[in-house]
Amino acid sequence: MDHEAGSGAVIDPVMADAMTVKSRLLSDIAICEPSLHMGPMQSHRQHWTRTARNALPSGEVQMLREGAFITPSVVSDQRLGVKPSGLGLYTSTATSAGCSMWRALMGPDNSMMWPQPWYTWKVDVERDVRVAEIISATRWVELVCNYPRLSHGLVYPDWARVARDFDAIHVTLPTVIAAHGFHFACPDRGVIPPAFWDVETVLWLKWCFSGAHLVESVGVG
Description:
The chain has helices at 2-5, 13-20, 24-32, 34-38, 101-106, 137-146, 159-165, 173-179; strands at 46-50, 89-93, 118-125, 131-134, 148-151, 154-157, 168-171, 184-186, 190-192, 201-204, 209-218.
């Protein structure tokens, strides 16, 4: 894309979505794990993984707790971001094999980006959560344009406003592929910077958990 149109090219989300239809891999995943492809988010299969990078000064890795959860409204004045950091919680759906895509992305070995030890918990999600299913680049653009936060010609999601209507957003695989690294236009407002979701992801904007259970630890001891 950069070679043909230059860095920062703005593309049509409908065209981006059309390209994912041709993916044999996505088609195979849709058969085996349909929720990763088109949703809905599976609340009983959400896994949360922490690494040594998230450890306390003592070296202890924090457990999942409501006191450490930061809602978007509290950090609304922080740095703008398409994929926010420092707020909410990210989980990924465990497949029938028991491993989420986020955990699979980390691989089997230690790395500078994700230092061991690794801890993966299955989170207990409360009932009746409101989830925005983002199943395509088109849906992603619609979300951002419906909840815009403008800065110097760029359009970011206003996560505080999104959190008023939804407890979480579920970014499925077609969206990851279609939107990864691309700019999209938000008509009459500006350009949406690239999103780098990497894997199927649930971004929790509200605390919706009653507990968590450790299902894997790697590199401990």
